[in-house]
Design goal:
It is built from 5 helices and 7 strands; from the N terminus they run H-H-E-H-E-E-H-E-E-H-E-E. By secondary structure, the chain is α+β, with helices and mostly antiparallel strands. It has a 5-stranded mixed sheet, covered by helices on one side. The chain has a two-stranded antiparallel ribbon with strand order 1-3. A hairpin with a 5-residue loop joins strand 6 and strand 7. The structure holds adenosine-5'-diphosphate (ADP). Adenosine-5'-diphosphate binds next to helix 4 and helix 5.
Amino acid sequence: MATVSHELRTPLAAIYGSALTLGRGDLELDEALHSKLLEVIVEESSRLADIVNDLLLASQLDAGRLHVHIERCDARALAQLVVEAALTHLPEGVSLELENGTDEVPPVAADEGQLRQVLGNLIDNAIKYSPDGGGIQIRLEPAGDHVRFRVADQGLGVPAAEESRIFEKFYRLDPHMTRGIGGTGLGLYISRELVRRVKGRIWVEPNDGRGSVFYVEIPASEPAKDRPGPDTW
Ligand code: ADP
């Protein structure tokens, strides 16, 4: 609760301060400052909305009230979309690459929007927990009757003893934000629950040398029965 309250208070304070400044009749604000303050209000409101959405989603998952719509999804196209979105806000010193991969990956049976949220969360975390920069690699590979997504970073890493706890609700390795990296501790909990609902799994391992590797395995979709396969021609 303290973590989430703190996360809510930071953007609220920024919005409040910016709005107060904009509303002061006794201040001559130049145009650049005026736009900057409006920008702060827009960005911080969007951050607030993200936090509230995560809180709502976690409570729906807890209550078993989340609807899951499982369909055939193109795993690579989906990963590409999430990577493209992340590339738009990549901090300096961090690079992000979706490996081409030699293996064809089959479509997966998942809820497309929810799977995008899971991958987006893993990639956003990889960026956020690489405060000193580094490379992030995304790889897709077939794994038996599953498709495996792999997100590897060279960031702060996760100690072996905490590898399962970070998926618990509200759990954060650095709750007092000594590195100044904020968060609610809900992202991995939500990801684990969403993945579990499509009969997949999610886990973390240390990366070679530095950082961590998050894995998500999603069941491959059965081939559509009424579509002629290459051997029926
Ligand atoms: P949040 O990022 O909002 O704190 P998450 O549930 O996404 O919440 O992650 C929980 C915790 O797991 C984080 O606070 C962080 O300590 C740790 N963590 C998640 N991803 C990474 C990563 N890629 N590298 C190092 N630590 C991570």
